[in-house]
Amino acid sequence: MLASLTKPGPFTLEALSLGDFWGIRIDGWLAAMAGERMKQPGCSELSGVCTHPDFRGGGLARLLWVFVAGRIAARGEIAYLHAYDSNAAAIELYESIGFRLRNRMNVAMVQRAK
Q1: How many CB atoms neighbour CB 29 within 10 A?
Q2: What is the spatial order of strands in the sheet that 43-51 belongs to?
Q3: Which of 10, 15, 27, 68 reaches 20 to 30 Å from 109, CA-CA?
Q4: Which residues does residue 21 pair with via DSSP β-bridges, in sequence order?
Q5: 88 domain residue, yes or no
Q6: DSSP 77
Q7: Do 64 and 33 touch, CB atoms closer than 8 A?
Q8: Better-scored residue on pLDDT, 80 or 12
């Protein structure tokens, strides 16, 4: 799974049930993906934006990001996202598209013991 390889954030297969996701395939490989996840009134989270390492640098994440953000805007909603501080490439991409840091958050993931 592309998300397991690239670790775009807390992302599991259950995230796919929270919204729509799109991908770009190249030669049968899922090269990049992005989608929507959390929704609040008037807002939708852009989520799972990632590109397979073999296909980075070709603008695929930007293409998907603009596509998903455009769908959110067409509904009259505000697109937002989260990024790890350590993910400089993602932050650079988001800022180049026009997003700006609004708030820093500390988040903890909790899950049931197996």
Answers
A1: 13
A2: 21-26, 29-40, 43-51, 78-80
A3: 68
A4: 35
A5: yes
A6: P
A7: yes
A8: 80
Phi first, then psi: give them for residue 54, nearest 5 degrees: -70, -15
Q: Please state the rounded mean pLDDT for residues 90-96.
A: 84
Return the structure tokens found at 10: 């807390």
Average pLDDT over residues 88-105: 83
Q: Tokens standing for 30?
A: 């899922």
Strand-pairing partners, residue 51, are 32
Average pLDDT over residues 47-64: 92
Structural tokens at position 23: 């991908």
Grade residue 33 by pLDDT with cuts at 50, 70 and 90. Answer: very high
Q: How far is CA 41 from CA 44, 68, 76, 80, in A?
A: 8, 17, 11, 12
With residue 38 as reference, give the H or E element that holds it.
strand 29-40
Domain tally, the chain: 1
